[in-house]
Amino acid sequence: MTGFDAADVGAALAVVRDRIRAAGGDDSVSILPVTKGFGPEAIEAAIGAGCSSIGENYAQELIAKRDVLDRGGRSVNVHFIGRLQTNKVRQLTDLVDVYETVDRLRLATEIAKRAPGAKILIQVDTEGELGKGGCPIGDLNTLVDNVVGLELDLRGLMTVGPTIGGPEAARDGFRQVRKAVDRLGLAVCSMGMTGDLEVAVQERTTQIRVGTALFGSRHVPIWRDQER
Ligand SMILES: *Cc1c(COP(=O)(O)O)cnc(C)c1O
């Protein structure tokens, strides 16, 4: 897959905007283009289409694309949305603007040490689905209590819907996460992807993370083996 162009990404963004509106959302819902599994040209096309942020999942892949993140005076904010190993944080601090997948105190502590004041989201797991990451929702209060004592800017919560069962299967978890966002008085609720964004909008997401709808289907990410 090569040859992304800004006009195609712009047209795909308009389709996603229409889906958000059809589900009852408005322009306050932000769209985070997810460029994992694609070459640097996907990031360039997103920037060309006017996007100010992108999401990446794998530390090595992000590092390999670092040259396109800040080019010609147009820079893009990077949201890290994949499983994050504590020992990788050090290599990412000058590339990542928002760490969306903080799910344990040890990781939060390492980010606070290496990137004091960094913006973070806590990733919540409402499913108990193995391998997906996320703080079990029952442990969320304890983690939040500990994280607020660190030098970090806790913006909100993030969650990933179930991989099976279709979009409706995500609803109950999304509702639980949104409730926790409200209870904690946080601003950001990052939930919804290409397959379940309508349900996320109905459950009052503030940010959907969208890859396939903007860039087409991915190959298996090249860096996965090294990081899992
Ligand atoms: C890959 C990924 C996305 C985007 O998924 P699509 O189905 O391609 O829209 C969103 N969030 C996370 C955490 C991801 O890993």
Structure characteristics:
single chain; about 230 residues; TIM Barrel; 7-stranded parallel sheet; about 35% helix; disordered C terminus; binds pyridoxal-5'-phosphate
What can you see in these coordinates?
It is a single chain. The chain is an alpha/beta fold and 228 residues long. The chain has one domain (6-212): TIM Barrel (Alpha-Beta Barrel), CATH 3.20.20.10. It is built from 10 helices and 11 strands. It has helices at residues 6-22, 40-48, 59-64, 89-92, 105-114, 140-147, 171-184, 197-202, 212-215, 224-227, and strands at residues 30-33, 53-56, 70-71, 74-75, 77-80, 98-102, 119-125, 135-136, 153-159, 188-190, 207-210. Strands 2, 5, 6, 7, 8, 9 and 10 form a 7-stranded parallel beta sheet that branches. A two-stranded parallel ribbon has the order 1-11. Mean pLDDT is 93; it is low at 222-228.
Give the secondary structure arrangement, pairings included.
Blueprint: H1 6-22, E1 30-33, H2 40-48, E2 53-56, H3 59-64, E3 70-71, E4 74-75, E5 77-80, H4 89-92, E6 98-102, H5 105-114, E7 119-125, E8 135-136, H6 140-147, E9 153-159, H7 171-184, E10 188-190, H8 197-202, E11 207-210, H9 212-215, H10 224-227
Parallel strand pairs: 1-11, 2-5, 5-6, 6-7, 7-8, 7-9, 9-10
Antiparallel strand pairs: 3-4
This protein binds pyridoxal-5'-phosphate.
Number of strands: 11
Query: What spatial form do the alpha-carbon principal axes imply?
Result: globular
Overall tally of structural domains? 1
CATH architecture: Alpha-Beta Barrel
In quaternary terms, these chains amount to single chain
Mean pLDDT: 93
Give me the number of helical elements: 10
Task: Give the N-terminus to C-terminus distance in angstroms.
Answer: 24 Å
Radius of gyration, rounded?
A: 17 Å
